[in-house]
Design a protein that fits this description.
It is a single chain. With 310 residues, the chain is of the alpha/beta class. The chain is built from 10 helices and 10 strands. The chain has helices at residues 13-26, 40-44, 50-72, 87-97, 120-128, 160-176, 205-232, 247-256, 279-287, 302-308, and strands at residues 4-8, 31-38, 79-84, 102-106, 133-136, 151-155, 179-183, 237-240, 260-266, 292-296. A 10-stranded mixed beta sheet has the order 3-2-1-4-5-10-9-6-7-8, sandwiched between helices. Helix 4 crosses helix 5 (120-128) and helix 8 packs parallel to helix 9. The radius of gyration is 22 Å and the shape is elongated. The protein starts with a strand and ends with a helix.
Length: 310
């Protein structure tokens, strides 16, 4: 399980609410390290306003000290630091300095004073592929976080990379005493497009239906195999094979239970939009109310990583 979690904050309530989802990990023994970044790229444009630059830096230090004091009331080992420079680069640099093994971020755009800490910066941090990132979507800021997740949702697509997310999901479910929910979507539009002969009386509807049913059975058999792994670990598991683009069903499953957390894997080359489940995962991250733990390919064994790159 994670030992140190880096939490970027920018003074906005949304960026601080991600702490509520970090606390369950901290209660398992992880240390919290807060960080705020003064974006020197913007300060450099106002170099003649030295007093303004000093005021912004002073504000950032005071804000961070105040928030740290609050967090230390429950977690005395919490720490904090301020960086100066490009937000994503500084977040990753500080994460390395403090040996963080997880970064937790909200996806809204940051405040006007300490700019770019979250929002577009989150995609840059995910894209780096250096560390797992717990991403709290914009809608998640309005949801009260539970003491701990009750369900770990793991969407699967049949790849070894996605199954790495299941391995972590099992570990999290054990730690949080949570249920596991496995989903593999089958697109009913996968067999769309022109079929030669359709304009001349050929009815492809039955063939289309048979193809979808075949994919549903294959997905169901696959999920049952993965569910047996979960049951062997002594955990409760549910499976679902939604027949649509996938994202809607996953989002519904997450939003139906405000105490659900999703675990998904990414190839680490192209950011959130290049996650292993493609547009499905992208929509889940941007549209659901639940946090998503994004696992980079770099955290997978060399053998699996080599297979992924083939």
């Amino acid at each position: 399980m994670y030992k140190k979690i880096l939490v970027p904050v920018d003074g906005s309530p949304d960026s601080e609410r991600v702490l509520d989802w970090v606390k369950p990990f901290a209660r398992l023994g992880a240390d919290i390290h807060l960080v705020t970044i003064v974006d020197s790229r913007h300060l450099a444009q106002a170099h003649e306003f030295a007093q303004l630059t000093e005021s912004i830096t002073e504000w950032a230090d005071q804000y961070l000290a105040g928030l740290l004091k609050e967090v230390q009331q429950e977690f005395p080992s919490a720490s904090a630091s301020r960086g100066t420079g490009g937000p994503a680069r500084e977040i990753l640099r500080i994460a390395g300095e403090v040996d963080a093994d997880l970064i937790a971020m909200e996806t809204h755009r940051g405040s006007a004073v300490v700019r770019g800490i979250v929002g577009s910066c989150t995609d840059a941090v995910v894209r780096s592929g250096k560390l797992p990132v717990l991403v709290l979507p914009p809608g998640g800021a309005s949801v009260t976080a539970p003491d701990k997740p009750s369900t770990i949702l793991v969407p699967l697509d049949g790849s070894d990379l996605a199954e790495h997310g299941l391995e972590l999901g099992i570990e999290l479910a054990k730690a949080f005493e949570a249920n596991l929910s496995l989903v593999r979507a089958v697109s009913a539009n996968a067999y769309g497009g022109s079929i030669y002969g359709m304009d001349h009386g050929f009815d492809a509807s039955q063939a289309w239906s048979d193809a979808v049913q075949s994919q549903e059975k294959e997905a169901g058999d696959y999920l049952n195999t993965q569910a047996n792994r979960v049951k062997a670990a002594g955990l409760s598991v549910m499976t679902a094979v939604p027949t649509d683009t996938g994202a809607g069903s996953v989002i519904d499953a997450l939003d139906d239970s405000p105490s659900t957390m999703a675990v998904m894997a990414t190839h680490g080359r192209g950011g959130i939009k290049r996650l292993v489940l493609g547009s499905v995962t992208d929509k889940v991250i941007r549209s659901s109310n639940a946090p998503v733990l994004v696992i980079p390919a770099n955290s997978i064994s060399d053998a699996n990583e080599a297979e992924t790159d083939v």
